[in-house]
Amino acid sequence: MSSHISTKAAIAGITIEPCIFNAAGPLCVTKEELEAIGSSHSGAIMTKSCTFEPRPGNPEPRYYEDALGSINSMGLPNLGYMKYAEFSSEMKKYRKPYIVSVAGLSLQDNIEIVKYLGQFKDIDAIELNLSCPNVIGKPQVAYDFDASDEMLREVLKVNKHVLGVKLSPYFDFAHFQQMAGVLKKHKLAFVSCVNSLGEGLFIDADAEQVAIKPKGGFGGIGGDYIKPTALANVRKFYELLDRKVPIVGVGGIKSGRDAFEFILAGATAVQIGTEFMRSGTACFARVDAELKALMKEKGYSTLDDFRGKLKVL
Ligand code: ERO
C-alpha cells in the first residue's frame, strides 16, 4: 500500500522503519518475546527494562486492563542485564535496531550495566529508564531533578552507545522546565515521553476490591487514560529542547491517527505499550498502515512533512 509514503525515522543515525515499535515493558522480557517483536513489523526491538540481578517481579495479579487502558505493578520482572546483552548478537538477524532498556536500582548499578553493555556492538541503543513507578520503596528518579542530573552525568561518562532517557510524565510547566534544564546539560540521543502515570488505582465496584495485588492495588496507568498527558509531554520537551533532540512518543497510541498526533506534536518515533499487550505484534503493521493511509489522505509523503507542525489557536 502507498509505496511512495514513508514512515521511516532516524535517531542519531539509526534508521527506525517504520517509526513505530514496542515500548519497554509489555511482552519483551524473554528471548521468545523479543524474537516475536523481531519477526513483526515493529521498527525496532526494545527490551524490558533490566536490572543488575534477574528479578521475578511483584506478586500476581500485577496487570489489569479495561476498555480505556491498563494498570500495572510488575515490579521489574526481567532476566538481568547480562541476558539482554547476550541476546544482542542473535537479534541482529532481524535487521532492525535492538535497544536495551536499563533500569538499575541505584546509580552504581546503572553505571555497571551501561559500562558492560558498551562491549556489545550489536546493541544499537540504550534507553535509560528514570521513571519506574513500581519498585517498592524507590521513588522515581525522574521526579528528583538533582538525582536525574547526577545519574545522567555519571552514566554518560561510561557509556559507549547511543543513549536516550525515558521520563515520567510531568504535570506542571515549572517541572517541564526544570527537567529540560537538566537534559540540556547532557548529550542525549533521544528522550522518550512518557512512562506510565504512577500510582493510579483501579477499583472493581462489584467485587469491592482493587484490580491488582501489589502495593494495595496502586500502579502505573497506561492506554487511553494517559494520551493527553503523553502528548503534552512530547510537545513541551520538543519545544524546550529547541526541536533538536529527537522525542519518542509513548502513551495511549493504538491507531495510526494517534501516531499522527504524536508526530504532529513533535515526536520522531512512537512506541506502543498497552495496545501491544492487548492485541500482540499485529498492532505494529496495523498502526503503520493506518498512519500511511492518513498521510496519503493529507498529501504527506514523509514524517518530516508534518513533524512538529502542530497549529495553535
Ligand atoms: O513495574 C514495572 O516493571 C514497570 N512498570 C511501568 O509501568 N513502568 C516501568 O518503568 C516499570 C519498570 C521499570
Task: Note the topology.
Layout: E1 9-11, E2 14-16, E3 20-22, H1 31-39, E4 45-46, E5 63-66, E6 69-72, H2 81-86, H3 88-91, E7 98-102, H4 107-117, E8 125-129, H5 145-158, E9 162-167, H6 173-184, E10 190-193, E11 197-201, E12 203-204, E13 209-210, E14 218-223, H7 227-240, E15 247-250, H8 256-265, E16 267-272, H9 274-279, H10 282-298
Parallel strand pairs: 3-16, 4-7, 7-8, 8-9, 9-10, 10-15, 15-16
Antiparallel strand pairs: 1-2, 5-6, 6-14, 11-14, 12-13
CATH H-level homologous superfamily name? Aldolase class I
Number of helices: 10
Strand content: 15-25%
Instruction: Estimate the helix proportion, in percent.
Output: 25-40%
Number of strands: 16
Low-confidence stretches: none
Which molecules are bound besides the chains? ligand ERO
The SSE string, one letter per element, is EEEHEEEHHEHEHEHEEEEEHEHEHH
CATH second-level architecture = Alpha-Beta Barrel
Q: Output mean pLDDT.
A: 97
* Structural class assignment: alpha/beta
Strand order of the largest sheet: 3-16-15-10-9-8-7-4
Identify the CATH class. Answer: Alpha Beta
Describe this structure in words.
The chain is an alpha/beta fold. It has a single domain (9-58, 75-196, 223-305), classed as Alpha-Beta Barrel (TIM Barrel). The protein has 10 helices and 16 strands. The strands form 4 sheets. The protein has an 8-stranded parallel β-sheet. Strands 5-6-14-11 form a 4-stranded antiparallel β-sheet. Helix 5 (145-158) links the parallel strand 8 (125-129) and strand 9. Helix 4 runs parallel beside helix 5, helix 5 (145-158) runs parallel beside helix 6 and helix 6 packs across helix 7 (227-240). The mean pLDDT is 97. Residues 25, 49, 72-76, 103, 129, 131-134, 195-196, 220 line the site of ligand ERO.
